[in-house]
């Protein structure tokens, strides 16, 4: 048996068996590969022949100890520098694990979590000696961070691979071979199917395997395909500081938890991201402090179920009582006890920098207890905007989706949120054409859109995914043309109602965080208000709040007061507003002036 196989077998035992059996396995499988002569560990037959029975403790002392294999199986607390790679596998040298200044091109598809994953992956590769490039033609390594939430998302990646195939085949022999990798959820879902279908793919890395990227790339350099799609029960990358992919960014994503335990019947996330686990509060606060010191003005806390956050790393909080769910909501899993919850984290994050906006996504409606709503209302720098995925307006469909609530409970929560946080902006997700959805179910979703009047919406036709409960228990019985027709009807109604909802901003003065030039016109700037609505205004000189006699142009990261708000003429995007810039602020200390000026 190869020494590396010994380590793999040891790791499997560490996951599932008692320590005694692990020690026995390590002694049985690995002594033959240690530097100790074979005579030091004779077989039972040899012992009988020689008549020599050595004391077990003396034999154990001459070979590898159990701690040697614990070190191999555990994740080191800090990533080594590019010049110091610790404990390479026996089939690789330290030098082979280094990037040697090879250039990496990263493409990101899908959700905000994938944006954050890209920054984590790049942080790890950068420490191993790789360089980043934005030029596809000069890349030595191309990595696609992928999404699997719908069939269309995966088809986008297959199409991209076909485009990259010619780039790889035309690679000059004078250059190092081009390596292509698939990272994230699609790698986790399809695994070897990708390697078998597209021979030009060199590496696969699931969402919990980014630490292994230097090794995977080193193996690929030998001409072999390499993959690590193991899911973890504890990987949160808490010790990896993501590297911002855009040097001019004014905002950042901070991952606070990974995975999902909700097991909604339509959702692939638990199978591509694994079980829920949360980062220690201390590591999150440290990352937010560093981002504040770098001058960033907005942080979005990320998680598949961000408000289900529960830090169990500090023993003194593990006996705390469980937090109440939203009224009328339930879970698909046994109630969890103890730990520091989302309200505590949100409180601590908002105290780090009062000038930094705080957002969070994507939450589950079940985890909005009163303490979270009260905190959002009281803290000026926590944005008054909540994403509240409904998925359907039919209680019957919600039950089939295993969402843990009825339409009535969801609407009651909407009313409670609006009473608790006056002026709050609401957004939501909806799925059209889920298994067994009738026309009556569809009309109930239409009526929910009209009743709630969301400011922002994300609507999609249902796409069945393998491994999900719906795939095994339900039938995808809605014809594609019916799904698309229902989707178009939902989009139409959403736009009508969002236009009405966003009229409340017309004529008001809003505090906008400038993001950069507008995509529509170089003469305009674009930013977002507290409710996450896009605001476009002219890039002209304006008064500076710090010096009333000074005229300045706003820069990305500045706060600008925008008056005389009006709705965009682009009816396809009712969440876009226009306005006239009034004054630039470096800080957010404008709230009292803003309120008094808008009376």
From TrEMBL:
Q: Which InterPro entries match?
A: Elp3/MiaA/NifB-like_rSAM, Methylthiotransferase, Methylthiotransferase_CS, Methylthiotransferase_N, Methylthiotransferase_N_sf, MiaB_methiolase, rSAM, rSAM_horseshoe
S-adenosyl-L-methionine among keywords: yes
One GO MF term on file is:
tRNA-2-methylthio-N(6)-dimethylallyladenosine(37) synthase activity
Q: Which domain of life is it from?
A: Eukaryota
Q: Please verify whether the record's keywords include Signal.
A: yes
Q: Which parts of the sequence belong to the MTTase N-terminal domain?
A: 102-222
What keywords are annotated for this sequence in UniProt? 4Fe-4S, Iron, Iron-sulfur, Metal-binding, S-adenosyl-L-methionine, Signal
List the GO terms this entry assigns under cellular component, sorted alphabetically: cytosol; mitochondrion
A biological process term (GO) from this entry: regulation of protein metabolic process
Q: What is this protein called?
A: Mitochondrial tRNA methylthiotransferase CDK5RAP1 isoform X1
Biological source species: Bos indicus (Zebu)
* Name of the coding gene: CDK5RAP1
